[in-house]
Amino acid sequence: MDPSKPTLVIVGTGWAGWTLSQELEEPVRRLSLSPSVQKYQVEVKSIDTKAKTIKCTPAIGSNGDARRPTFRGVDAHDFEVSYDILVLAPGSETNTFGTPGVLEHCYTMKSVKDARKLRERMLDCFELASLPICSEKQKRDLLHFAIVGGGPTGVELAAEIDELIHGHLSHLYHSLKDYVSISVYDIAPKLLGPFDEELSAYAMEKFNRRNVNTRMGRHIESFQQGSMKIKEDGEVGFGICIWATGNKASQLVEDLDVRKSEGGMKRILTDKHLRVLQTPNKQQKENDEKSDPIPGVYALGDAADIMGSELPTTAEVAVQKAKWLAKHLQETSEMSISTEDVSERSNAFHYEQKPLVAYIGRHDGVVEGKGDWTGAGAWLAWRSGNLEWTRIQLM
Question: Which family does it belong to (predicted)?
Fold first, then answer.
Protein backbone atom coordinates (compact mmCIF):
# COMPACT_ATOMS: atom_id res chain seq x y z
CA MET A 1 0.00 0.00 0.00
CA ASP A 2 1.24 3.50 -0.87
CA PRO A 3 2.03 5.38 2.38
CA SER A 4 1.88 8.70 0.53
CA LYS A 5 -1.86 8.26 -0.08
CA PRO A 6 -4.58 8.60 2.58
CA THR A 7 -5.83 5.35 4.12
CA LEU A 8 -9.56 4.73 3.94
CA VAL A 9 -10.86 2.03 6.31
CA ILE A 10 -14.34 0.54 5.84
CA VAL A 11 -15.73 -1.44 8.78
CA GLY A 12 -18.31 -3.93 7.47
CA THR A 13 -19.08 -5.52 4.10
CA GLY A 14 -22.87 -5.64 4.15
CA TRP A 15 -24.95 -3.70 1.64
CA ALA A 16 -23.45 -0.37 2.76
CA GLY A 17 -19.79 -1.33 3.06
CA TRP A 18 -19.80 -3.55 -0.02
CA THR A 19 -21.51 -0.99 -2.26
CA LEU A 20 -19.13 1.73 -1.10
CA SER A 21 -16.11 -0.44 -1.90
CA GLN A 22 -17.50 -1.22 -5.36
CA GLU A 23 -18.30 2.40 -6.14
CA LEU A 24 -14.76 3.35 -5.10
CA GLU A 25 -13.40 0.57 -7.38
CA GLU A 26 -12.02 -1.39 -4.46
CA PRO A 27 -13.49 -4.89 -4.89
CA VAL A 28 -13.46 -6.89 -1.68
CA ARG A 29 -11.53 -10.21 -1.94
CA ARG A 30 -10.43 -9.44 -5.53
CA LEU A 31 -7.17 -8.10 -4.22
CA SER A 32 -5.22 -9.10 -7.32
CA LEU A 33 -7.31 -6.63 -9.33
CA SER A 34 -6.66 -3.79 -6.91
CA PRO A 35 -3.28 -3.97 -5.12
CA SER A 36 -4.13 -0.84 -3.11
CA VAL A 37 -6.77 -2.76 -1.13
CA GLN A 38 -6.01 -4.79 1.98
CA LYS A 39 -8.80 -6.97 3.41
CA TYR A 40 -8.80 -8.13 7.04
CA GLN A 41 -11.29 -10.62 8.47
CA VAL A 42 -11.48 -9.33 12.01
CA GLU A 43 -13.77 -8.16 14.76
CA VAL A 44 -13.29 -4.47 15.48
CA LYS A 45 -13.06 -4.20 19.26
CA SER A 46 -12.61 -0.45 19.72
CA ILE A 47 -11.94 2.79 17.87
CA ASP A 48 -9.79 5.72 18.97
CA THR A 49 -10.95 8.70 16.89
CA LYS A 50 -8.28 10.99 18.36
CA ALA A 51 -5.38 8.69 17.49
CA LYS A 52 -7.23 7.54 14.33
CA THR A 53 -6.68 3.85 15.04
CA ILE A 54 -8.93 0.81 15.33
CA LYS A 55 -8.18 -2.26 17.46
CA CYS A 56 -8.84 -5.59 15.73
CA THR A 57 -9.19 -9.23 16.83
CA PRO A 58 -8.65 -11.92 14.15
CA ALA A 59 -11.97 -13.63 13.27
CA ILE A 60 -11.11 -16.51 10.96
CA GLY A 61 -13.59 -18.75 9.17
CA SER A 62 -15.93 -18.15 6.24
CA ASN A 63 -18.27 -16.23 8.54
CA GLY A 64 -15.74 -15.03 11.10
CA ASP A 65 -16.78 -17.65 13.65
CA ALA A 66 -13.39 -18.28 15.28
CA ARG A 67 -12.01 -15.49 17.45
CA ARG A 68 -8.21 -15.45 17.89
CA PRO A 69 -7.74 -18.88 16.27
CA THR A 70 -4.67 -20.97 17.07
CA PHE A 71 -2.46 -22.18 14.24
CA ARG A 72 0.91 -23.84 14.55
CA GLY A 73 3.53 -21.15 14.72
CA VAL A 74 1.01 -18.28 14.44
CA ASP A 75 -0.03 -16.15 17.40
CA ALA A 76 -3.28 -14.56 16.23
CA HIS A 77 -3.12 -11.64 18.64
CA ASP A 78 -4.91 -8.29 18.52
CA PHE A 79 -3.47 -5.54 16.35
CA GLU A 80 -4.19 -1.95 15.36
CA VAL A 81 -4.92 -0.35 12.01
CA SER A 82 -4.44 3.37 11.38
CA TYR A 83 -6.74 5.40 9.16
CA ASP A 84 -7.13 8.84 7.63
CA ILE A 85 -10.80 8.34 6.74
CA LEU A 86 -13.04 5.86 8.56
CA VAL A 87 -16.41 4.60 7.34
CA LEU A 88 -18.48 2.70 9.89
CA ALA A 89 -20.94 0.19 8.43
CA PRO A 90 -20.97 -2.68 10.98
CA GLY A 91 -24.65 -3.47 10.52
CA SER A 92 -26.72 -4.83 13.41
CA GLU A 93 -27.16 -8.01 15.42
CA THR A 94 -30.13 -10.27 16.06
CA ASN A 95 -32.41 -9.05 18.84
CA THR A 96 -33.92 -11.98 20.73
CA PHE A 97 -35.95 -9.68 23.03
CA GLY A 98 -34.79 -11.90 25.87
CA THR A 99 -36.62 -14.97 24.53
CA PRO A 100 -34.90 -18.06 25.98
CA GLY A 101 -33.38 -20.49 23.47
CA VAL A 102 -33.42 -18.31 20.33
CA LEU A 103 -29.67 -18.28 19.72
CA GLU A 104 -29.29 -21.97 20.56
CA HIS A 105 -32.23 -23.40 18.60
CA CYS A 106 -33.16 -20.96 15.81
CA TYR A 107 -31.59 -20.03 12.49
CA THR A 108 -30.99 -16.43 11.45
CA MET A 109 -30.49 -15.01 7.97
CA LYS A 110 -27.59 -12.56 8.02
CA SER A 111 -25.26 -14.05 5.40
CA VAL A 112 -24.86 -16.43 2.48
CA LYS A 113 -23.45 -18.96 4.92
CA ASP A 114 -26.69 -18.79 6.91
CA ALA A 115 -28.69 -19.54 3.75
CA ARG A 116 -26.49 -22.54 2.95
CA LYS A 117 -26.88 -23.90 6.48
CA LEU A 118 -30.65 -23.54 6.22
CA ARG A 119 -30.78 -25.42 2.93
CA GLU A 120 -28.64 -28.26 4.29
CA ARG A 121 -30.81 -28.52 7.40
CA MET A 122 -33.97 -28.69 5.26
CA LEU A 123 -32.51 -31.60 3.30
CA ASP A 124 -31.58 -33.32 6.56
CA CYS A 125 -35.16 -32.94 7.81
CA PHE A 126 -36.56 -34.61 4.69
CA GLU A 127 -33.97 -37.38 4.78
CA LEU A 128 -34.65 -38.18 8.43
CA ALA A 129 -38.43 -38.02 8.00
CA SER A 130 -38.21 -40.48 5.10
CA LEU A 131 -36.74 -43.20 7.33
CA PRO A 132 -39.06 -45.94 8.66
CA ILE A 133 -37.95 -45.20 12.25
CA CYS A 134 -39.99 -41.96 12.39
CA SER A 135 -43.53 -41.87 13.77
CA GLU A 136 -46.32 -39.85 12.16
CA LYS A 137 -45.91 -37.07 14.74
CA GLN A 138 -42.13 -37.01 14.31
CA LYS A 139 -42.55 -36.64 10.55
CA ARG A 140 -44.95 -33.71 10.98
CA ASP A 141 -42.65 -32.01 13.47
CA LEU A 142 -39.53 -32.54 11.34
CA LEU A 143 -41.28 -31.14 8.27
CA HIS A 144 -42.76 -28.13 10.05
CA PHE A 145 -40.77 -25.07 8.95
CA ALA A 146 -41.50 -22.13 11.25
CA ILE A 147 -40.59 -18.48 10.73
CA VAL A 148 -40.86 -15.91 13.52
CA GLY A 149 -41.38 -12.49 11.97
CA GLY A 150 -44.12 -11.42 9.58
CA GLY A 151 -42.31 -8.50 7.98
CA PRO A 152 -40.85 -8.50 4.44
CA THR A 153 -37.90 -10.73 5.46
CA GLY A 154 -40.09 -13.37 7.08
CA VAL A 155 -42.64 -13.31 4.26
CA GLU A 156 -40.00 -13.69 1.55
CA LEU A 157 -38.34 -16.53 3.48
CA ALA A 158 -41.67 -18.34 3.71
CA ALA A 159 -42.20 -17.81 -0.02
CA GLU A 160 -38.78 -19.18 -0.95
CA ILE A 161 -39.16 -22.21 1.33
CA ASP A 162 -42.61 -22.89 -0.16
CA GLU A 163 -41.17 -22.75 -3.69
CA LEU A 164 -38.23 -25.01 -2.82
CA ILE A 165 -40.53 -27.61 -1.28
CA HIS A 166 -43.31 -27.62 -3.84
CA GLY A 167 -41.11 -27.04 -6.85
CA HIS A 168 -38.39 -29.53 -5.98
CA LEU A 169 -38.35 -31.44 -2.69
CA SER A 170 -41.95 -32.70 -2.87
CA HIS A 171 -41.01 -34.51 -6.11
CA LEU A 172 -37.95 -36.12 -4.52
CA TYR A 173 -39.82 -37.07 -1.35
CA HIS A 174 -43.28 -37.71 -2.79
CA SER A 175 -44.48 -39.79 0.17
CA LEU A 176 -43.82 -36.92 2.58
CA LYS A 177 -45.70 -34.08 0.87
CA ASP A 178 -48.75 -34.39 3.15
CA TYR A 179 -46.59 -33.99 6.24
CA VAL A 180 -45.04 -30.66 5.23
CA SER A 181 -46.19 -27.37 6.75
CA ILE A 182 -44.88 -23.81 6.80
CA SER A 183 -45.92 -21.29 9.46
CA VAL A 184 -45.25 -17.59 9.93
CA TYR A 185 -45.60 -16.27 13.49
CA ASP A 186 -45.80 -12.65 14.59
CA ILE A 187 -47.08 -10.70 17.56
CA ALA A 188 -48.64 -8.19 15.13
CA PRO A 189 -52.20 -8.67 13.84
CA LYS A 190 -51.15 -8.80 10.16
CA LEU A 191 -48.33 -9.67 7.79
CA LEU A 192 -46.17 -6.99 6.16
CA GLY A 193 -46.73 -4.29 8.76
CA PRO A 194 -45.19 -1.45 6.68
CA PHE A 195 -47.56 -2.17 3.77
CA ASP A 196 -51.11 -1.00 3.07
CA GLU A 197 -53.92 -2.99 4.71
CA GLU A 198 -55.21 -4.34 1.38
CA LEU A 199 -51.77 -5.53 0.28
CA SER A 200 -51.25 -7.24 3.63
CA ALA A 201 -54.63 -8.98 3.32
CA TYR A 202 -53.75 -10.06 -0.24
CA ALA A 203 -50.48 -11.65 0.96
CA MET A 204 -52.23 -13.45 3.83
CA GLU A 205 -54.95 -14.79 1.53
CA LYS A 206 -52.40 -16.11 -0.97
CA PHE A 207 -50.39 -17.77 1.79
CA ASN A 208 -53.46 -19.42 3.28
CA ARG A 209 -54.44 -20.80 -0.13
CA ARG A 210 -51.05 -22.50 -0.34
CA ASN A 211 -51.34 -23.85 3.21
CA VAL A 212 -48.70 -21.47 4.49
CA ASN A 213 -50.09 -20.83 7.96
CA THR A 214 -50.17 -17.20 9.12
CA ARG A 215 -50.17 -17.24 12.92
CA MET A 216 -50.68 -13.60 13.86
CA GLY A 217 -51.02 -12.24 17.39
CA ARG A 218 -48.73 -14.95 18.77
CA HIS A 219 -46.44 -14.53 21.79
CA ILE A 220 -43.38 -16.78 21.59
CA GLU A 221 -42.24 -17.61 25.13
CA SER A 222 -39.25 -19.94 24.72
CA PHE A 223 -37.42 -22.48 22.54
CA GLN A 224 -36.04 -25.94 23.14
CA GLN A 225 -34.47 -28.32 20.66
CA GLY A 226 -37.17 -29.04 18.08
CA SER A 227 -39.99 -27.17 19.82
CA MET A 228 -41.20 -23.76 20.95
CA LYS A 229 -43.67 -22.66 23.59
CA ILE A 230 -46.34 -20.25 22.40
CA LYS A 231 -48.69 -18.52 24.85
CA GLU A 232 -51.73 -19.03 22.63
CA ASP A 233 -50.91 -22.51 21.24
CA GLY A 234 -48.83 -24.32 23.83
CA GLU A 235 -45.87 -26.43 22.68
CA VAL A 236 -45.30 -26.59 18.92
CA GLY A 237 -42.76 -28.89 17.28
CA PHE A 238 -40.61 -27.94 14.28
CA GLY A 239 -37.75 -29.19 12.16
CA ILE A 240 -36.45 -25.69 11.54
CA CYS A 241 -37.33 -22.33 13.09
CA ILE A 242 -35.96 -19.12 11.57
CA TRP A 243 -35.85 -16.01 13.76
CA ALA A 244 -36.52 -13.12 11.38
CA THR A 245 -37.65 -10.35 13.69
CA GLY A 246 -35.82 -7.53 15.38
CA ASN A 247 -32.31 -6.10 15.30
CA LYS A 248 -30.12 -4.51 17.94
CA ALA A 249 -26.94 -2.51 17.94
CA SER A 250 -23.63 -4.37 17.80
CA GLN A 251 -21.28 -4.23 20.77
CA LEU A 252 -18.99 -1.95 18.76
CA VAL A 253 -21.77 0.62 18.34
CA GLU A 254 -22.77 0.28 22.01
CA ASP A 255 -19.19 1.02 23.08
CA LEU A 256 -18.49 3.95 20.73
CA ASP A 257 -18.20 7.37 22.35
CA VAL A 258 -20.30 9.19 19.74
CA ARG A 259 -23.82 10.60 19.53
CA LYS A 260 -26.49 7.90 19.26
CA SER A 261 -30.23 7.75 18.81
CA GLU A 262 -32.45 7.26 21.84
CA GLY A 263 -35.31 4.79 22.01
CA GLY A 264 -35.46 1.59 19.97
CA MET A 265 -32.24 0.29 18.45
CA LYS A 266 -29.26 2.52 19.21
CA ARG A 267 -27.82 3.94 15.99
CA ILE A 268 -24.84 6.20 15.33
CA LEU A 269 -26.13 9.68 14.52
CA THR A 270 -24.66 11.62 11.60
CA ASP A 271 -25.28 14.96 9.95
CA LYS A 272 -26.72 15.18 6.43
CA HIS A 273 -23.25 14.62 5.00
CA LEU A 274 -23.07 11.28 6.86
CA ARG A 275 -20.37 12.57 9.22
CA VAL A 276 -20.49 10.98 12.68
CA LEU A 277 -21.48 13.44 15.40
CA GLN A 278 -19.57 13.85 18.64
CA THR A 279 -21.18 13.00 21.97
CA PRO A 280 -23.32 16.06 22.82
CA ASN A 281 -22.70 18.26 25.82
CA LYS A 282 -25.49 18.84 28.33
CA GLN A 283 -26.85 21.94 26.57
CA GLN A 284 -26.86 20.29 23.12
CA LYS A 285 -28.65 17.26 24.51
CA GLU A 286 -31.28 19.27 26.39
CA ASN A 287 -32.00 21.54 23.39
CA ASP A 288 -31.72 18.72 20.83
CA GLU A 289 -28.96 20.65 19.07
CA LYS A 290 -26.52 19.05 16.67
CA SER A 291 -23.05 18.42 18.00
CA ASP A 292 -19.92 18.87 15.89
CA PRO A 293 -18.87 16.10 13.47
CA ILE A 294 -15.81 13.97 14.18
CA PRO A 295 -13.18 14.75 11.51
CA GLY A 296 -12.82 12.04 8.86
CA VAL A 297 -15.40 9.62 10.32
CA TYR A 298 -18.58 8.61 8.46
CA ALA A 299 -21.31 6.07 9.18
CA LEU A 300 -24.03 4.37 7.11
CA GLY A 301 -26.09 1.19 6.90
CA ASP A 302 -28.28 -0.23 9.69
CA ALA A 303 -25.89 1.05 12.35
CA ALA A 304 -26.37 4.73 11.44
CA ASP A 305 -29.09 7.33 11.05
CA ILE A 306 -29.23 11.01 10.15
CA MET A 307 -30.10 13.25 13.08
CA GLY A 308 -33.53 14.77 12.50
CA SER A 309 -34.19 12.61 9.42
CA GLU A 310 -34.88 9.08 10.61
CA LEU A 311 -34.70 6.44 7.86
CA PRO A 312 -35.54 2.71 7.93
CA THR A 313 -32.89 -0.02 8.23
CA THR A 314 -33.25 -1.32 4.66
CA ALA A 315 -30.83 -2.29 1.91
CA GLU A 316 -32.20 0.49 -0.29
CA VAL A 317 -31.24 3.18 2.24
CA ALA A 318 -27.80 1.60 2.74
CA VAL A 319 -27.09 1.45 -1.00
CA GLN A 320 -28.18 5.04 -1.65
CA LYS A 321 -26.01 6.34 1.20
CA ALA A 322 -23.02 4.30 0.01
CA LYS A 323 -23.29 5.65 -3.53
CA TRP A 324 -23.57 9.22 -2.28
CA LEU A 325 -20.57 8.82 0.03
CA ALA A 326 -18.45 7.25 -2.72
CA LYS A 327 -19.07 10.25 -4.94
CA HIS A 328 -18.39 12.58 -2.03
CA LEU A 329 -15.06 10.91 -1.21
CA GLN A 330 -14.02 10.90 -4.87
CA GLU A 331 -14.68 14.64 -5.00
CA THR A 332 -12.48 15.01 -1.92
CA SER A 333 -9.63 13.19 -3.67
CA GLU A 334 -10.02 15.02 -6.97
CA MET A 335 -10.27 18.46 -5.43
CA SER A 336 -7.39 17.81 -2.99
CA ILE A 337 -9.17 19.50 -0.10
CA SER A 338 -10.19 18.26 3.30
CA THR A 339 -13.29 16.13 3.78
CA GLU A 340 -14.70 18.81 6.07
CA ASP A 341 -14.41 21.47 3.34
CA VAL A 342 -16.02 19.19 0.75
CA SER A 343 -18.88 18.44 3.12
CA GLU A 344 -19.62 22.12 3.49
CA ARG A 345 -19.51 22.70 -0.29
CA SER A 346 -21.24 19.56 -1.56
CA ASN A 347 -24.97 18.83 -1.53
CA ALA A 348 -26.25 16.93 1.48
CA PHE A 349 -27.46 13.36 1.16
CA HIS A 350 -31.10 13.06 0.13
CA TYR A 351 -32.95 9.75 0.25
CA GLU A 352 -35.16 8.97 -2.74
CA GLN A 353 -38.12 6.93 -1.53
CA LYS A 354 -38.59 3.77 -3.60
CA PRO A 355 -41.70 1.57 -3.70
CA LEU A 356 -41.97 -1.11 -1.03
CA VAL A 357 -41.72 -4.53 -2.67
CA ALA A 358 -42.21 -8.00 -1.18
CA TYR A 359 -42.15 -11.39 -2.89
CA ILE A 360 -44.84 -13.85 -1.74
CA GLY A 361 -43.84 -16.79 -3.93
CA ARG A 362 -44.94 -18.54 -7.11
CA HIS A 363 -44.38 -15.52 -9.38
CA ASP A 364 -46.49 -13.27 -7.17
CA GLY A 365 -45.72 -10.20 -5.07
CA VAL A 366 -46.98 -6.93 -3.63
CA VAL A 367 -45.75 -3.41 -4.38
CA GLU A 368 -46.66 -0.23 -2.52
CA GLY A 369 -45.59 3.09 -3.93
CA LYS A 370 -46.78 5.10 -6.92
CA GLY A 371 -49.90 3.04 -7.23
CA ASP A 372 -50.17 -0.29 -5.44
CA TRP A 373 -50.19 -3.50 -7.42
CA THR A 374 -49.97 -7.25 -6.99
CA GLY A 375 -49.42 -10.40 -9.04
CA ALA A 376 -46.87 -11.18 -11.74
CA GLY A 377 -46.05 -7.51 -12.36
CA ALA A 378 -45.14 -7.07 -8.71
CA TRP A 379 -43.00 -10.20 -8.87
CA LEU A 380 -41.13 -8.81 -11.88
CA ALA A 381 -40.50 -5.56 -10.01
CA TRP A 382 -39.08 -7.52 -7.08
CA ARG A 383 -37.06 -9.77 -9.38
CA SER A 384 -35.53 -6.92 -11.37
CA GLY A 385 -34.49 -5.15 -8.16
CA ASN A 386 -32.91 -8.30 -6.75
CA LEU A 387 -31.06 -9.02 -9.98
CA GLU A 388 -29.64 -5.51 -10.02
CA TRP A 389 -28.43 -5.79 -6.42
CA THR A 390 -27.01 -9.27 -7.10
CA ARG A 391 -25.13 -7.85 -10.09
CA ILE A 392 -23.68 -5.16 -7.81
CA GLN A 393 -22.62 -7.79 -5.28
CA LEU A 394 -20.96 -10.03 -7.87
CA MET A 395 -19.06 -7.37 -9.79
Answer: Belongs to the NADH dehydrogenase family.
Give residue 279's pLDDT band: very low, low, confident or very high (50, 70, 90).
very high
User: What is the CATH number that goes with domain 112-245?
Assistant: 3.50.50.60
| Triad 75, 81, 87: Cα angle to 5° | 135
pLDDT of residue 246: 82
CA 191-165-217 angle, to 5 degrees, is 20
Question: Which residues neighbour 93 within 8 Å (Cβ) at sequence distance 6 or greater?
Answer: 247, 248, 249, 250, 251
Name the pTM for this structure: 0.81
Q: Over the chain, what is the mean pLDDT? A: 83
- Look at the domain 8-93+249-336 and name its fold: FAD/NAD(P)-binding domain (3.50.50)
Beta pairing partners, 293: 277
- Tell me if 12 sits within 8 A of 301, measured CB to CB: yes
Q: What residues does CATH 3.50.50.60 cover in the chain?
A: 8-93+249-336, 112-245
Instruction: Report how far residue 392's alpha carbon sits from residue 395's, in angstroms, rounded to the nearest whole number.
Output: 5
pLDDT tens, position by position, 303-316: 999 999 888 888 88
